[in-house]
Write a structure and sequence with these properties.
Structural class: alpha+beta
Oligomer: single chain
CATH class of the largest domain: Alpha Beta
Distance between the termini: 47 Å
Largest sheet: 8 strands, antiparallel
Strand content: 25-35%
Shape: globular
Strand order of the largest sheet: 13-12-9-10-11-14-16-15
Number of strands: 16
Number of helices: 9
Order of helices and strands: EHEEHEHHHEEEHEEEEHEEHHEEE
CATH architecture of the largest domain: 2-Layer Sandwich
Length: about 375
């Protein structure tokens, strides 16, 4: 029986653990907290901070695991790939790629300012530094995820008022400010095998209005530019050039992109992993392509391929409540979705993730414009 170590025990990792168990694997799991939702699905659990590379390596060697992986976690991927490299285990891309993608200034610098689709930015550790990006701008922790500490800033007063709040989410104690790009938000899920992109599907990304940082509310397939060949070609070019620049040659990758009013795609972020929004399930409903299954199969060394498929209109809607609210299913009108999953039982207290509007569950249903 093959053994896999999964880093993280949140909802995205629950999907991965279940998929590995379905293929007869023995699953070990680690997280810096205990009692999370995915923990009961693993065969073995140990509370270890997943950014502690040496501790994760020791646990992996102790249990002679064959694979190390994660889903939906930027902070996990440098550990996944570094330990896999040290132990000679199969993995999808260099550890340096995950390090770059997990540090926003490093990503911007790696792509270089001449890279078409990159965004002007500045790394800062003090609000007293000279600001070289004009208003409006986006302020983000350099090495966080999940829209934590992300603000749109329109004035020097807002800049100073939000700086420390944003930096509090950064492990390295820094923020990045980026030029504000006005346009339509999209995501792109890709899959590569042997250096060839064999799948790429854009989707429309709809965020909660009047909340900072682009907190996700819905994903819709097909995306809003599906009938615009010029925009489709530009998005495809940006995705392919980014994959090549970052040496993402195998496995899944997830992109967030803004398409400006003139149809130019700008890269917000990219990560060499499955996303944290269960997009693999939405894509499976829409196309029949199962990116989670492909990921596990490729990790095991199996040959993978994708045949012809039809894109059917589907959407994911996240069912959300403010931080610290008492969860109750009756607070939501869900209709008759084709898929529904809750993150809490009635009476549970909604945990703080982004600090504003937290995911309590999600549904998938056919999309009607």
């Amino acid at each position: 029986m093959k053994k896999i170590l999964v880093l993280g025990t949140g909802m995205p990792q629950a999907d991965l653990i279940k998929a590995c168990k379905a293929r007869g694997m023995e699953v070990f799991a680690c997280s810096y907290t205990s009692g999370d939702v995915a923990e009961p699905f693993a065969d073995h659990f140990k509370q270890i901070n997943i950014v502690d590379i040496d501790a994760i390596e020791a646990y992996a060697r102790e249990n002679q695991v064959d694979y190390i992986y994660s889903a939906g976690s930027d902070v996990a991927m440098p550990t996944v790939l570094t330990v896999s490299e040290r132990m000679g285990l199969r993995h999808f891309c260099p550890s340096q790629t995950a390090t770059i993608c997990n540090n926003k200034p490093l990503l911007r610098n790696t792509l270089t300012q001449d890279f078409e689709g990159n965004i002007k930015s500045q790394r800062m550790t003090s609000a007293d530094e000279e600001l070289k990006v004009g208003f409006p701008l986006m302020m983000k922790p350099t090495d966080s995820q999940g829209q934590r500490g992300v603000y749109r800033v329109d004035s020097i007063e807002e800049f100073r008022g939000n700086f420390e709040k944003s930096m509090a989410f950064s492990r390295e104690g820094a923020v990045i400010v980026e030029e504000f790009i006005e346009g339509e938000e999209i995501s792109v899920n890709t899959f590569c095998s042997g250096g060839k992109m064999i799948f790429a599907l854009p989707s429309k990304r709809i965020v909660w209005e009047d909340l900072p940082g682009g907190i996700i509310h819905r994903h819709v397939i097909p995306f809003q530019y599906a009938d615009d060949p010029d925009v489709c070609a530009k998005v495809d070019s940006l995705v392919r050039r980014t994959l090549k620049k970052l040496n993402i040659n195998d496995g899944p990758a997830y992109f967030q992109i803004i398409v400006t009013k003139d149809g130019t795609p700008k890269l917000v972020e990219v990560t060499p992993r499955l996303d944290g929004c269960h997009m693999w399930r939405l894509i499976r409903y829409s196309t029949g392509v199962d990116l989670l299954d492909l990921t596990v199969r490729l990790l095991l060394g199996e040959e993978v391929g994708i045949g012809e498929y039809e894109v059917k209109p589907y959407e994911t809607e996240f069912l959300c409540l403010p931080t610290a609210e008492v969860f109750n299913k009756n607070r939501f009108e869900i209709g008759d979705p084709e898929f529904l999953q809750w993150y809490y039982e009635d009476g549970g207290i909604v945990k703080k993730m982004n600090g504003y509007m937290e995911k309590c569950g999600y549904l998938i249903k056919p999309y009607q414009a």
